[in-house]
């Protein structure tokens, strides 16, 4: 039985308001090609398929096209929602997707009521049982506990409850078949991206599950963390497949991949990474205007976070950088600001218009034009209740 493990597609993600739909389409086409070349039996999509709970039609087109193409090459698919996905949306799609060999587990379910999915290999000779656990919020953990008939235990932490839930889901998996646990969750000790796209509220200690809570199965397929990695401290092979493209500058420099997992009943899983190269690179660069222009060709079509260095304020420097580096999506100016403190310490108590003027001056080195201040006042008035 050969499985392709992927997650965190985040289709619909933008960077500085620039669409990345084409990157997602190309990355998923590459994943489909990998599945075809590897003659994969099952594709596991472990959550955060979309970037938004209400995805755009363009994002939906990219995702559903990829799911259909997996079916065309003979691979079955299992999808679980992540914290970026809308479970009820996926539940509504279940009957349609089932016709295309795509199984969806949109919510926590009892093992015999859809929580454990059994899929066959292409030749029908092998079977894999997959205990599927979509994202569970702290608010929903009590409902999940009652659903699984777990006894009430006062003051249980999220991690303890999740451990009990995972154990109950995997308790009756058949060791004579291939066994997998697929979940969208955060395991403590996993390395997240610095200033990355994983939402800080869902990767902190509040939502951290211990490695010891992971079940004794042949392979644990996880989504939620964007850096591809094996889970440290896990007693069984457990991996985050990671995102398919560099989603933000916290992921700059990361290589992206999917995991190919070979399983046979009663034998250790064999796991290897296959790189995915379709996405545009994200790079943080810096230098004087002349140095930036000199190195522009080296950076190709990468999205750039630029720090422009100058000895003094140069009016319009940010616009000049953008003209010379069209792929610059975030620009910072670095030059001496003699006697000027950070605006954070001086903004308290100031009127919003003055706060905006102070921040603009700090960032750009020159006061905002009167018409810009008037525009700020207009927008503020429209946004105020």
Describe the protein in words.
It is built from nine helices and 19 strands. The strands form five sheets. Strands 6-5-4-1-15-16 form a six-stranded mixed β-sheet. A six-stranded mixed β-sheet has the order 7-8-9-12-14-13, covered by helices on one side. It starts with a strand and ends with a helix. Mean pLDDT is 88; it is low at 341-345. The longest helix has 17 residues, at 21-37. The chain is α/β, with parallel strands linked by helices and 385 residues long. The protein has helices at residues 21-37, 57-72, 87-98, 141-147, 158-170, 289-294, 317-324, 352-364, 370-383, and strands spanning 2-6, 14-15, 18-19, 42-46, 76-80, 102-104, 116-120, 127-133, 178-184, 186-187, 208-209, 219-223, 229-230, 238-240, 256-262, 270-276, 282-287, 303-309, 328-334. Helix 7 links the parallel strand 18 and strand 19. The chain folds into two domains: 2-276, 4-Layer Sandwich (Purple Acid Phosphatase, chain A, domain 2); 282-383, no CATH class. Helix content is 28%, strand content 23%.
């Amino acid at each position: 039985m050969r499985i392709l493990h992927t997650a965190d597609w985040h289709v619909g993600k933008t960077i500085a308001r620039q669409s990345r739909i084409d990157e997602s389409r190309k990355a998923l086409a590459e994943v489909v090609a990998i599945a075809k070349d590897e003659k994969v039996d099952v594709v596991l999509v472990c959550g955060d398929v979309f970037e938004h709970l209400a995805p755009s039609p363009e994002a939906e087109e990219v995702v559903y096209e990829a799911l259909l193409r997996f079916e065309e090459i003979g691979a079955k698919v299992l999808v679980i929602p992540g914290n970026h996905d809308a479970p009820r949306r996926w539940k509504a799609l279940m009957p349609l997707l089932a016709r295309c060999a795509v199984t969806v587990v949109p919510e926590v379910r009892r093992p015999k009521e859809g929580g454990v999915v059994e899929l066959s290999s292409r030749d029908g000779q092998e079977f894999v049982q997959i205990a599927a656990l979509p994202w569970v919020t702290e608010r929903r953990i009590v409902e999940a506990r009652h659903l699984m008939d777990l006894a009430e235990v006062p003051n249980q932490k999220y991690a303890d409850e999740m451990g009990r839930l995972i154990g109950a889901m995997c308790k009756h998996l058949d060791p004579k078949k291939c066994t997998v646990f697929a979940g969208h969750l955060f395991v403590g000790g996993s390395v997240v991206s610095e200033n990355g796209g994983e939402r800080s509220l869902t990767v902190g200690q509040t939502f951290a599950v211990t490695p010891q809570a992971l079940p004794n199965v042949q392979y644990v397929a996880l989504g939620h963390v964007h850096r591809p990695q094996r889970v440290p401290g896990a007693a069984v092979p457990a991996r985050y497949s990671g995102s398919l493209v560099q989603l933000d500058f916290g992921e700059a420099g990361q290589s992206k991949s999917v995991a190919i997992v070979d399983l046979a009943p009663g034998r250790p899983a064999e796991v290897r990474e296959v790189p995915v190269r379709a996405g545009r690179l994200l790079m943080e660069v810096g230098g004087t205007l002349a140095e930036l222009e000199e190195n522009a060709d080296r950076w190709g079509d990468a999205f750039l976070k630029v720090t422009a260095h100058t000895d003094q304020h140069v009016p319009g420097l940010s616009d000049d950088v953008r003209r010379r580096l069209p792929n610059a999506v975030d620009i910072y100016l670095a030059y001496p600001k003699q006697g000027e403190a950070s605006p954070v310490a001086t903004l308290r108590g100031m009127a919003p218009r003055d706060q905006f003027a102070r921040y603009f001056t700090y960032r750009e080195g020159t006061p905002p034009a009167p018409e810009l201040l008037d525009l700020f006042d207009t927008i503020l008035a429209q946004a105020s209740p």
